[in-house]
Amino acid sequence: MLVSDRPRPAPPDPPVLVRDPTVRITSIVLLLIAAAAWADVIRSSREGPDMMMTMFMPPTVADALVFVASWGVMMAAMMLPSALPMIRLYGATLRGDAATTPRALAIAAFTLVYLAVWTASGAPVYLAHTGLMALSPRAFAYGVATALLAAGVFQLSSLKRRCLRVCRSPLGFLLGHWRAGLRGSLALGGWHALYCLGCCWALMIVLVAAGAMGLAWVLLITAVVAAEKLLPAGEWTARVTGGAFLLLGTVVFLHPDLVTALRAGHLMSM
Fold this sequence. Notes:
globular; disordered N terminus
């Protein structure tokens, strides 16, 4: 855990957040970035089925780069809105800071590292999905069922609750991990991304394995992420989602042919 080099001022109250021009501009810019990412996700979903998601293709560096780039855009669309409270509070906490790093640069560094970690997570996702697609149809169905069951177990686990509580408590995160300067911004962005990744990785596995990254599944998982992080009953949302994954995984395990219906949403959304 990173430790503060010196005492930091407490973040301002929410009304100050609203009046702070830098925080307000940051919010607008991030929402515009998320909107542009959503536009690209929707555009891509209408261009036709992604061959990598519907049939086995031997892994290549070129395909991996394309997948990771697309994954990064999709993560910007899905994760930036729910990360906005943390980023806004971080920007407000820097208000009046005597550090030499400009506040806009510190916020940008925090956000870029956050997005970079999520983008980099696309590399193991690509390899895992390529391996899954190489299985026989029946083994593939059991692989999807296993992914659903594993996601359900994780959603109900204490590790999920710990990571989710960090994501739901921006102030507690900043107090516990604060570092000053540009390096501190980079470290904070990385730590927040890792907690966020630890909280949401199972949802992303379901998105790829069961949903084939179809638009309907992207919208559903985005709604779940936002509900877990932003709504008062976020932890109960995680538990309910975990129970749903366990039930769905059991049904798919008993009836493997249902995998076609699950992943059909990918083709229907194109």
